[in-house]
Amino acid sequence: MSKLTLGSYPHMLGFEQLERLLERTAKSSEGYPPFNIEQTSDFSYRITLAVAGFSEEDLAITVEDRQLVIRGRQREDGAQRIFLHRGIAARQFQRSFVLADGVEVGEAVMENGLLHVDLTLSRPETVVQTIQIKKG
What we know:
Blueprint: H1 16-27, E1 35-41, E2 44-50, E3 59-64, E4 67-72, E5 93-98, E6 103-111, E7 114-121
Antiparallel strand pairs: 1-2, 2-7, 3-4, 4-5, 6-7
């Protein structure tokens, strides 16, 4: 059985990059840290990640190739601590979100162990273009 791709459909031209983005996103579906995505208005969204135990300095937010990437890495405090039980995760993470054209990343705010990242969507104007047909 062969795999169907967007390139297999003759009426869908130039969607190879979208297909690569979908494959890359499917590979990064790890469940840590948990997150919410909410629509805050017709043209804005908010991603909220549960990052308890991380400080602002432990987190990095970047936009790379239309992907919002949020990374977390806790620093060791240097003191030798002896845990009798360690149930709080202190692992590093990377969460990626694919952004459509026109989606811009706004501010990021830490609040009560939650990282909020605001996104806005700008709607491009509809452009109608007429192509002239020349005689050959």
